[in-house]
Amino acid sequence: MTKLIFMGTPAFSATVLKGLLGDDQYEILAVVTQPDRAVGRKKEIRVTPVKEVALAHNLPVYQPEKLSGSPELDALMSLGADGIVTAAFGQFLPTKLLNSVHFAVNVHASLLPKYRGGAPIHYALINGESEAGVTLMEMVKEMDAGDMIAKRAIPITDEDNVGTLFEKLAVVGRDLLLENLPAYVAGELKPEAQDPSQVTFSPNISPEEERLDWTKTNRQIFNHIRGMYPWPVAHTLLKGERFKIYEARLAEGSGRPGEIIALSKKELVVATGQGAIALKTVQPAGKPRMGIADFLNGFGRKLAVGDRFGE
């Protein structure tokens, strides 16, 4: 039986961990995840999805704010693990930890060498990619730069957003790992080096990147909105106040970028640099998230064709 330390944080990682727990070839000695955080307006402490899975299986959980130089690092190195598996953990692994095991592999949600970094799914959508995927790779000190063990792609559809792709790719990543890890551990798979000339990056989304640029095409704005949904959520300005747009669809029409060109009890269509989009789910400043019909029935009564978003 192969003894593993598992490291991960979000639901994507939890799916991978569940896969390992369901395979009797592996024993999970410990789980490492990010510290519990206060979330929402009420600042309620929420444990990570990976921690929830670990506790349900009575596994030891380590949550260092920073793994390097921590007491948790020494404890992990003393466990006698054969290897480490990470999936969206969120921290670099110290070299001495990598050197303390026979192997360390990462389940990364992109088709490397494209989209190294913390937000590969967001950028795949924002940039209008036709496919997304998962790469199983060896871990090295440099971010997502290790040799590739296996990869698998799936198509991106217009119905996809960050949430749906995370769910799909979590299953892809789980299966890719379980199918290839035994042969890799046995030395039967030869990893392939990444082509440096093809490397692109997907750093965590900055607040500035959440804002919509209405001069872009309707397809670009549509991709931007779904590339921010369900988090961190795209926004613009409406009558000088922050206005979040969760969901939209492509529409026809023309006008000045950001201009409302069609308005009814159930529809609000906004012109872009080329074409238009119809808003579906929104959140005005100081209000809860709502469908467009509910918005138009309330605050929307103050709007008129010719008003502009972004001003």
UniProtKB/TrEMBL annotation:
This protein's GO CC annotations: cytosol
Domain of life from the UniProt record: Bacteria
EC id: 2.1.2.9
Formyl transferase C-terminal domain mapped to chain residues: 204-299
Residues annotated for (6S)-5,6,7,8-tetrahydrofolate binding in this entry: 110-113
Single GO MF descriptor: methionyl-tRNA formyltransferase activity
Gene3D superfamilies (UniProt xref): Formyl transferase, C-terminal domain (3.10.25.10), Formyl transferase, N-terminal domain (3.40.50.170)
Function (record text): Attaches a formyl group to the free amino group of methionyl-tRNA(fMet). The formyl group appears to play a dual role in the initiator identity of N-formylmethionyl-tRNA by promoting its recognition by IF2 and preventing the misappropriation of this tRNA by the elongation apparatus.
Database matches in PANTHER family: METHIONYL-TRNA FORMYLTRANSFERASE, METHIONYL-TRNA FORMYLTRANSFERASE, MITOCHONDRIAL
HAMAP family registered for this protein in UniProt: Formyl_trans
Protein name stated in the entry: Methionyl-tRNA formyltransferase
Species whose genome carries this gene: Streptococcus himalayensis
